[in-house]
Each structure stands twice: as C-alpha cells, then as structure tokens.
Specification:
The complex is a heterodimer. Chain A is mainly α. Chain A has one domain. Chain A is globular, with a radius of gyration of 18 Å. Chain B has two domains: about 220 residues, Rossmann fold, CATH 3.40.50.300; about 80 residues, 2-Layer Sandwich (Alpha-Beta Plaits). Chain B starts with a strand and ends with a helix.
Amino acid sequence: MINVTITKLAAQALLGRRRFWLLLAFPVLLVALTVTITALTDGDAAWPLLPGLGYPVVLPLVAVLAASSVLGPEVDDGSIVYLLSKPISRHAVALSKWVVAWAATMVAGALPLYVSALVAGGGDRASAAGLAAVVAGTTYSALFLAVSAITRHAVIVSLLFVLIWEGLLGNLLTGVAWLSVAQWGLRIGHEVSTELPDPTNVPWAALASLVVTVGGVWFCGDRLRSFSLRGED
Amino acid sequence: MSTLVLDSVSRWFGNVVAVNDVSLTIAPGVTGLLGPNGAGKTTLMAMMTGFLAPSAGTVTLDGEPVWRHTEAYRRIGLVPERELSFGYLTGRQFVRANADLHRLPDAAAATERILGVVDMVEPAARRLDTYSKGMRQRIKIAAALVHDPAVLLLDEPFNGVDPRQRMHLMDLLHRLGDEGRTVLFSSHILEEVERLARHIEVVVSGRHAASGDFGAIRRLMTDRPVQYAVTSSDDRALAALLIAQASVRAVRLRPDGGLDVEVDDLGSFAVGLPQWARTAGLSLYDLSPSDESLESVFAYLVAR
C-alpha cells in the first residue's frame, strides 16, 4: 500500500523547504527552555511548560507544518499531476504522504516533548506525556493532511482548529474535550500516570483517535481521486 | 495502437460553459488541438487525461473511461503545461522517479534509454532548477515516455521554447507519431500546428469548430474575406473605384480618414489595386490587413 517512491519524494520535499527549519525551531526551543529553567531552579518548575506550551502548541504546530508541507504546495501549484498520472491508487498516494508527515511529527513533535518531560521531572508522568504526544501527534498529522487536501489555506484552518476550538473553547466548555484531539491523547496518557487529566473515557479517546487517523488519510485519498486540473480558461 | 474518444463531452463551471458538446476521435499519429487562448483546450486536455470529470458525455481510451481510472495511466503519457516544482531533483532522478512510480521492471535502463531519446543524457546529472525552458520540456517528455505509453498528451508543449529546441521537439513528436503512437498536442499558434500535425482539431469558445486534414482547414482560412485598412490621396474617389471591382465586397469610409475594404478574392485584389490607383491618378499611402489575428480566423471558421 505504501509507495516508497512517493514517500521518498515527500521526504525530500519536506526537508528541502525553508518551512522545515521553522518546524525544527519550535521543538529545539522547547527543549532548550526546559533545560534552562530546570538548571536555574529547583524541583519541577519547568514542568508547566509541557501542559502550557509543549503539548497544546508545539506538537500541533509541528503536525500542521509537516502535514501541509507534504501535500499542500504540490496541490497548490498543480505539480501533483506528475504523481497522480501514474497507475497508483490515490489512497496509496495519501497513505505514503501521511507516513512522512507522521514521522516528522513524531521526530520533531512527540520526541522533543518526551525529552522535555524527562528533563522537567521524569518518571511515570514523562512516559505518560510521551504517550499522549504520540497518540495526539498521530491523529493531528492525519487530520491536518485531510485539511490540506481540501483547502489551500490548510495552515490557517488547522491553526484555527487548534487555537480556537481546542485552546479557547476547550478551556471554557468541558464538553469540547469529547471532540478534541489533544484531550483524547491526554486521556490515553492518563492510563500511564494519573497526574495527567482524565477528560472523556479511554474507549472513546482510543476509538475517536483511530477513526480520525484512518478517516483523515482515507478522506485525503478520496479527495485526490477527484483531483481536478482547472485551466485558466 | 490506442484511440481516445470523446463522445458529446461538455463541461461547465457554475454558469460558465467551458466545453460545449464536443465529439472527437484521436487516432494514432500526430494530432494538433488548435484554438485561441481561452477556447477550452486546457479543459479538454484535463478531461482527456483524467484530471477533470465531464459534466456530460464520456471520455474513453480504448473503450474504458479515463476519469477515476488510474490503470489507464499505463497507456497514457502526460506532459502537463504546469511547471515542474521538483527543482531539488536532477533530471535523471526525476525521470527515474517516474519510472519507479510505474513500477518498471528495469527502471534504471528505461531511464537511460529515454534520456537518450530526448537527447538529455549529458545534462541529466544537473538539478531541474538549472534547466532552460526547452530542457525542462524535454525532461517532462522523457518522464511521460519512460513507460513506453501508446498515447502521449502534451498541453502547449512549445510555449516559451526557443526555435532550435522547438525544431528538436517537433522532430521527436514526428518520430513518435510515425511509430504508431497516438500523439495529441494543444497549441494556439497556427504555424506550430501546421508544421507538426497532419490532422487537426479546432476548438473555439468551447465548441468543436473544425476537424480534418490541415491543408483543407488552411484553405478555409485563406479563402475567407479579408479586411484591409487603406489610406490614399483621395479616399472617396478610391472608394468609388474599389466598389466597382469584383474582388471587393464592401468599402466603408472611416470617420478619421481612410477606408475599410473587405476583399473576397485576395489574389486579384493584390494584383489589381496598384494598377487601379495609378490609372485614376491616386496615391496609396498605407495598406494594412486589419484582422489577421488568429482569433478572427477562428471566428470565421465558427461562423461557417
């Protein structure tokens, strides 16, 4: 199902863009900040960085940049026709591209988050935060890939989802947790350490994450099946 | 040998009809798809290549629809007008990636073979973003041909290509047509189509305006009435003189001086005009065709 050539090209496209350095800057900053605060203070003063900055901001931001980089530019300038005019199922194209976005989100999002958690306190809650980041990062990357297949303003739409829906409304209305990728991740992380909050319940969090991940990639493939070139005329 | 058939194909975008009830059969050999800018060529090409669903009618390749049928790409090579945005790849890597995407059994050999065909072996080690327009066009053709397709579709392949490279590309397409491939290219430039295609299809304003042998269509075009603007020492006297001639269909005095002359028989008008003027003692200052644009040629074809 996964096409190695498409994966390779997507990885090259991701690494070759300036956006990639932006993508790397956020996690590097997070780890650096955690290390600095931990070195200058006693106890776990750096820990609030994770629920305050790392998990709700850096992780989704990395996922947005990764997912939109592997698909968005090619759809925008139409050069994706070079990939699509091949006897390859469009779902395979979507899956192959998602693998790259997912890997980038794991390496530049979930891993630095886990490292920060280790530095800031370690123990069970670090593993829990790492698990939550893996779950949410996986779901985010598929969701934002689907968004990239719908609109050329994918970055803005995805960021609005994260900041307005999950951030602002999620803090005001507890019910939003049921439809929040971040909260699903936290709930699964809660199984490892009870220091993480427990919104919703585990079966829901797991099922919803799975459905959005599989559905997002599938939907992206479906959109590519109907990809149309429009002339200037 | 493969045949691409469009049967009563229409495509509209909202209230705008881009392609209106077009039926075409593209057979082996080189076919030119000719039409002015905005005629619907790109929309037609998009439907032929499976990148746009017809609003009505069908597009089939050897009997199978091309829309949402990725297996059709085994037989289709596509050279889009879109620029390559894979500047970070070398020419060889790009063609090789296309060979790999087709899962060719010996992708490396196929890549080298096709680089030779388009004469791009030497620059293939350079990155795409260092290529000239003509080189990019040839590497796009190599990528489209690497799996040896029966059908090659090219959208405005000569746009921005310098004359020498254009000759080279035309030779290549000629060869491909002679090998029995179905080659279709779109163009808005009459001379390009004339030099390359024996068979042409003309689209104007989304409609199929003419089809057939180039010679026949060219004759239709040259036999049409032609408009000239003439200025002379005495426009009114010249007008009286011209309207008496069988080759002239209409004469009109322009408000700002000079005449608009509509000519039926270009040959006898061209020979006669200097003699008529000299005999009447008139001086001709200026004679210029006022409707030589391709658009007017197309408009005439549509009106017929």
